[in-house]
Design brief:
Blueprint lengths: L14 H8 L18 E2 L5 E5 L4 H6 L6 H12 L7 E5 L6 E2 L7 E2 L4 H18 L3 E5 L1 H8 L13 E2 L11 E5 L2 H5 L3 H20 L4
Parallel strand pairs: 2-3, 2-6, 6-8
Antiparallel strand pairs: 1-3, 4-5, 7-8
Length: 213
């Protein structure tokens, strides 16, 4: 068994071909339990790319990113920030749903390990290289550390314009903005959600403000 997705990633910048190839990826063991690969979707040459952690239960069942509760919250935040989701490219760091069943029935999200994140990164690298976004928004610690390094602390860099490390060379140098993952906001106590939602909206507005257009 290979320990990375690299051997499954075709030499192409065509997103449809990448998505098709990702369907049969066995770069880590997460494919064994997930319903299907959930690849990114959106505008092929989007100026802004949003990157989350991994698909959730609804995403795994429907095969599309950010269509569950976190996706609904993200849609509200994008609307509040006056950012059109149809003009974005939205994806996740890990393309298969990792979960546990503590009750024996309901599937509960489980954070992917560093090994699983690294194994799946070739797909994310391929998406960035293909889309060539001007701005990449990393939502949550898993996404931020996947691209910025394992020691990166999201809370220390919110509200800053950052750039990707020079290695590997992805052939593009987008501005990078970090923010909270929508699912993290949903897990906050009710009295804190409005404040955290407003912070997400502010981060999305900041990211949109970095676009040349």
């Amino acid at each position: 068994m290979t320990s990375t997705a690299q051997s499954f990633v075709p030499q192409t910048h065509d997103l449809d071909q990448l998505a098709e190839a990702a369907r049969t990826c066995q770069g880590c063991d997460l494919y064994r339990d997930a319903e299907q690969t959930v690849f990114g979707e959106g505008a092929a040459h989007a100026a802004m790319m949003l990157v989350g952690e991994q698909p959730g239960d609804q995403e795994d069942r429907r095969g599309r990113p950010f269509v569950g509760p976190a996706g609904n919250l993200l849609d509200k935040a994008l609307a509040a920030a006056e950012v059109d989701r149809e003009r974005l490219y939205v994806t996740n760091t890990v393309k298969h749903f990792k979960f546990t069943r503590p009750s024996g029935t309901r599937r509960i999200h489980k954070t992917p390990s560093r090994t699983e994140v690294v194994a799946c990164r070739p797909w994310l690298f391929a998406e960035i290289t293909s889309v060539k976004p001007e701005v990449v928004v990393l939502m949550g610690a898993t996404a931020a550390q996947a691209l910025m390094g394992n020691g990166f602390r999201l809370t220390a860099h919110r509200g800053e314009e950052l750039h990707l490390p020079t290695e590997p060379d992805l052939g593009v140098d987008p501005s990078v903005v970090t923010t909270a993952h929508p699912s993290a906001i949903l897990r906050r106590p009710a009295e804190e959600r409005a404040k955290n939602f407003d912070a997400l909206v502010a981060d999305l507005r900041f990211a949109a403000g970095l676009l040349s257009g």
